[in-house]
Amino acid sequence: SQQGEEDPQALSIQEGENATMNCSYKTSINNLQWYRQNSGRGLVHLILIRSNEREKHSGRLRVTLDTSKKSSSLLITASRAADTASYFCATLANAGGTSYGKLTFGQGTILTVHP
Amino acid sequence: NAGVMQNPRHLVRRRGQEARLRCSPMKGHSHVYWYRQLPEEGLKFMVYLQKENIIDESGMPKERFSAEFPKEGPSILRIQQVVRGDSAAYFCASSPFLGGSTGELFFGEGSRLTVL
């Protein structure tokens, strides 16, 4: 599996339900980020969690990070049709104190929320 | 405050032609990254540039691909003698200073290259 592998690959739910996506990675990280991509569009940054954090919230988003298992999950609560998009996790590796935007992306989860 | 601007949004080239993709970072951002997204895949890092300097090109194919970020003007990703396998979406991202210290990037809408 590649760095930043996500599951499921596709998720289909009804409006109002919660959506959970998981991400696994391989190497030591500085932080892990989640991005959203609408079809044919660019990526939009959703949330960032640092390696020393375990959980973070932003609106309807909740991200957890388990560095011992090298995994993260993104929970979207009370989903809406407008949440339909692809969701990618991306990791920033530890680079000996020098970090820059060389992110490693997963394959993404395609979320479809039916009205 | 305009975001990251990429053009063209769509580009069609025949095999053997050259493709030039342009990226203007967000105002105040001096660090530019290029990523490639093949169909049904995540983004793959290609190159990281600051003004007039290539910092990391470890993700760039050794042949036919080049990138620059001149003192004046946009960053350019150049693909010479394109082949069908170059068909992809090419995304530019920028950050305000050294990786934004967190790695959070601001992405453009992408340039979608189709090679016939």
Keywords:
heterodimer, A: 115 residues, mainly beta, 5-stranded antiparallel beta sheet, globular, B: 116 residues, 7-stranded mixed beta sheet, 4-stranded antiparallel beta sheet, 48% strand
Characterization of this structure:
The complex is a heterodimer of chains A (115) and B (116). By secondary structure, chain A is an all-beta fold. Chain A contains no helices and 11 strands. In chain A, strands 2, 4, 5, 9, 10 and 11 form a 6-stranded mixed beta sheet that branches. A 5-stranded antiparallel beta sheet of chain A has the order 1-3-8-7-6, with no helix packed on it. Chain B has no helices and 11 strands. Helices cover 0% and strands 48% of the residues of chain B. In chain B, a hairpin with a 2-residue loop joins strand 5 and strand 6. Chain B is mostly beta strands. The radius of gyration of chain B is 13 Å and the shape is globular. At the A-B interface, strand 4, strand 5, strand 9 and strand 10 of A face strand 4, strand 5, strand 9 and strand 10 of B.
Helix-strand blueprint:
The complex is a heterodimer of chains A (115) and B (116).
Chain A: E1 5-7, E2 10-14, E3 19-24, E4 29-37, E5 43-50, E6 55-58, E7 61-66, E8 71-76, E9 85-93, E10 103-105, E11 109-114
Chain B: E1 5-7, E2 10-13, E3 19-24, E4 31-37, E5 43-50, E6 53-56, E7 65-68, E8 75-79, E9 88-95, E10 106-107, E11 111-115
Compact summary:
Chain A is mainly β and 115 residues long.
The oligomerization state is heterodimer
Largest sheet of chain A: 6 strands, mixed
What is the percentage of strand-forming residues of chain A?
over 45%
Helix-strand pattern of chain B: EEEEEEEEEEE
- Overall pLDDT metric of chain B: 91
Q: Helicity level of chain B, as a percent range?
A: under 10%
The total of helices of chain B stands at: 0
> Given the helix and strand composition of chain B, which structural class is it?
mainly beta
Shape verdict of chain B: globular
